[in-house]
TrEMBL record:
Superkingdom in the source lineage: Bacteria
A Pfam cross-reference name: DDE_Tnp_1_2
InterPro entries in the record: IS402-like_dom (IPR025161), Tnp_DDE_dom (IPR025668), Transposase_6_like (IPR052909)
Name of this chain's protein: IS5 family transposase
Amino acid sequence: MSNLFWLTDEQMNRLRPFFPKSHGRPRVDDRRVLSGIIFINRNGLRWCDAPKEYGPYKTLYNRWKRWSDIGIFARIMMGLASEGAEQTTLMIDATYLKAHRTASSLGGQKGGRGRLIGRTKGGMNTKLHAVTDALGRPIRFFMSAGQVSDYIGARAMLSSLPLAEWMIADRGYDADWFREALKDKGIRACIPGRRSRGKAIRYDKRRYKRRNRIEIMFGRLKDWRRVATRYDRCPKVFLSAIALAATVIFWL
């Protein structure tokens, strides 16, 4: 099939340092298995629908689940981002990701506890909070239930922010505590004030126009069908799908 995805030798060389060590029997061909995992996630397929060129689908699923559980895909993204990010300016924002009914079945005692899925006006959603570099490439992710405020995501990612000169955000992040926290880290805020403020907040309007890059980033992530619609009940597995998409789109 001509539309199958295959990682190049150069891409594999960049990924290999982040792979866990193989204990016991050697792993099945990493390139074939990872290429199949990417193909499934990008196209939103069931694992049993994986093309035969990638080998047994159970091999793909087992590798995906095992590496997701130990955070390998998130580690790959953050590792590659730390090597190539343009961090003089950071941007922060959040977006909703629709939860499919297979992920959001909330009835009974098991109902969605710990799944990071919440009810919003648009239905059952997960919220993805992201920090990007100056070029709009993601360097940090935080996932929460859909009804959680942007402030919670900002607070969760604050301690892990890299050194930077500027932080660009929309007025949803206009809070005195956030501005002070950025100032304490030596980061200047480019955040317009809320209309409810009695005194207008001055900000660099020319610099603020760059914020569309993080919106573009979210749009490109949602081109991957397994990101745009959440099918996975386990938050760690779903976050791995997001990290994998970000790695392939922005860092390889």
